[in-house]
Amino acid sequence: MSSDGTSVSALPRRDLELIAEMVTDGSRVLDIGCGDGALLDHLGRHKGVDGRGIELSQAGVNACVAHGLSVIQGDADTDLEHYPDDAFDFVVLTRTLQATRNPREVVSHLVRIGKHAIVSFENYGHWRVRLQLLLNGRIPVMGADEGFGWHDAPNIHPCTIRDFSAMCEELGLSVKRALSLSRAGATRKLRSAGASANIRGEEAIFLLTRD
Amino acid sequence: MATRDISPSSALGSADTPGFHVELAADRPMALDSGESIGPFTTAYTTCGTLNSDKSNAILVCHALTGDQYVLEQHPVTGKPGWWELMVGPGKSLDTDRYFIICVNVLGGCMGSTGPRDINPETGRPWGLDFPVITIGDMVRAQALLLDHLGIEKLFCVIGGSMGAMQVLEWAARYPDRVFSAIPIAGAARHSAQNIAFHEVGRQAIMADPDWRRGNYLQEQTNPKSGLSVARMAAHITYLSETALHRKFGRRLQGREEISFGFDADFQVESYLRHQGSTFVERFDANSYLYITRAMDYFDLAAEHDGVLAGAFENTSVRFCVISFNSDWLFPTDESREVVRALNAVAANVSFVEIDTDKGHDAFLLDEREFHRTVSGFLEGAADHRGLARK
Q1: CA–CA separation, A9 and B243 (whole Å)
Q2: Of B294, B316, B342, which residue sits at a domain end?
C-alpha cells in the first residue's frame, strides 16, 4: 500500500503474491501479523475479500485503520482464542509463526478459526543456513532476523520445512498445497517434505485444512 | 409517535439554549429501565452539515458526562467554541461538508433536554429528586425517538468518548439495524468499581453541601456551588494523566515566591482545580450531575446477557472502530480490549487502535493527530462500504 492509500498493483513480497493467488474471490480472510495491510488492501481491491487483520505493532495498526482496513492491535499468542470456530474462510499467517511463543497452538487455532490456513515461514533447512552453522559454528539467522543475534532475534522458534510438515502431521492436518520459494522468487511444488526442497527453498508456503 | 416542536418549559428556555428543541413521547410515555416512564419530554440538539436526500450520511455524536449538544457551535453560557471543534467541521475528521452531524443533550441533562431542574408537570415545581433515575439505555432510547422524528432510519455512524462511548455501545447493542458504524472512544462496556467510587465521592460532595437542600435548591433559591465544584475538581483529576498534570504544573507556586504555611492555593495545580470547579458550576446543574453519574454507574452491557458481553453483539453487522489512549487510567485500554474480544467472539467487523499519548482520558478532546487520522481513515473506509459519494 502506498502512502496515499491507493493500492499498488504488485505486492511488495513474492510470498504475498502467491498467497493472494490461493485466496478465493469474495471470501472472508483474517491476516495475522498484517503489517501495514498490503495483503488485506490487495485482497479487498482485487478479490472482493472481506478482510480483517491483527497486528502487533502500533504503527502498523494505525496505518491500516487510517486507510480504512479493519485491523486490531493484538498478538497471535494471546488473542486467537477469542475467535469462534470457522469464522473465516482463510486465516493467513506470514513470516510470523517462528516468532510466536507456541507455534503449535497457534497453528491449531488457525485451522480452527479458518476453514483454510495459509502459513508462510523461512526455511532454516536451507543449504546456506546449514553451511553457516557448519563453517562458522554460530547459530545462523535469516530473513527478517538478519542483523540480529541468537539472543535477540524475533524468530524464537526457527524451523525447517521438514519440521513444519512433521508438526502438521502430528496435528492431523492435511496439506492442500505446499510451495517452496528460492531467493530469486522461483517456486516449486513440494512433495511431502521432499529433501531437496528443504535444502533449496528459502521460504515455504503451506495451505492447510483440518482434515 | 407524534411529536411537535415546542419551546421547553425548562429552567433554561430555548432562547438560552440555542439549537433545536423537540417534544418527544407526546402520545405515549417512554418506558425507562427503572420501570417508571417519562413523557412528553424535551430533547435539545444541534446539527451541522446537510442531511443528504436518502438520509444516509447522519453521524450521531454522543457527549460525555459534563458535555452537551454544543459540539461545534459556541457554548451559550461559557462563550467557548464547541467542545469537539477539533474533530467536527469542514474538512475535519467529522467533515460537515460531507456528513450531517447531530448532537443531543442527554435525557437528564441541563442544557435544554428534560432533566431534574425542569418543572414536573404533576406538581408545577422543579423535579429535583422526584425525577426518575435514568440509564444510558434511556438516553439512547430518547435519541432513537429523535431519529424517528427526523426520519432518519439508519445512522451512518455513532461516535463518542467516555460516557459517549457507553452510548455508542448501547446504540450498537440495542439498535444494530439503525447503526452502520460505531466508534466508542476511551470507554468501557461497564463502569468499574473504581469509576463508581470516584462518582460516589462527587455525589457525596454535592449532597454534603448545605445548599443542596435534599435536591430542592431551586425552590429554596440556593445553589450547592461548593459541593458541585468539589465534585468537578475530584473528577477533573481523573481525566488527566499524572504525567500531563506534572508537566502542566509540577510543584510550581501560584502568584507567590514561597509557600504560605496556610491553606490558600499555594500551588498552581490547586488554583487550576479551583478554577475548573468554579467555572463548571456556572454551566452545570448539581442534580443533573447526580443523575448522569448514576446512569454511568449502572451501565453494564453484559448484565442483560448473563454476564457474557459477546451476547450483546450477536450477529451484529455494525462496523466498529474501538479507540483507547494508553495513558487513560479512568477507562484503561484493557476495558476497550474487553469490548474488542467480545466483538471478535461474534466475528464482528472491528478495528482497534490504542493511541500513544500522555494526556490521559481527556485526550479524546485534544489535538491528537494520530487519533484524528484514525477516525478519518475509519470513516473513509466505512463511507466506501456505505456507498457514500466522495466529496
Answers
A1: 45
A2: B294
Which domain-ending residue is among B243, B268, B294? B294
B245-285 pLDDT, tens digit per residue, is 999 999 999 999 999 999 999 999 999 999 999 999 999 99
User: Using the 8-state DSSP alphabet, how is residue B106 labeled?
Assistant: P
- Kindly indicate whether the domain formed by A14-209 is annotated with CATH number 3.30.470.20: no
Contact B21, B6 (CB under 8 A): yes
Q: What interhelical angle do B193-208 and B225-239 show, nearest 10?
A: 160
CB atoms within 10 A of CB A137: 7
pLDDT in tens, A140-190: 888 777 889 889 999 999 999 999 999 999 999 999 999 998 877 677 777
Residues of A at the B interface (Cβ-Cβ below 8 Å)?
50, 52, 58, 61-62, 64-74, 79, 82-84, 87-88
Question: Model's pTM, two decimal places?
Answer: 0.91
CA–CA separation, B31 and B301 (whole Å): 18
Q: How confident is the model at residue B391 (pLDDT cuts 50, 70, 90)?
A: low
Check A65 against B350: CB less than 8 A apart: no
Taking the CA of residue A106 and the nearest CA in chain B, the distance in Å comes to 16
Reported ipTM exceeds the 0.85 cut: no
First CA to last CA distance, chain B: 35
In chain A, the residue whose alpha carbon lies closest to the alpha carbon of B342 is: A82
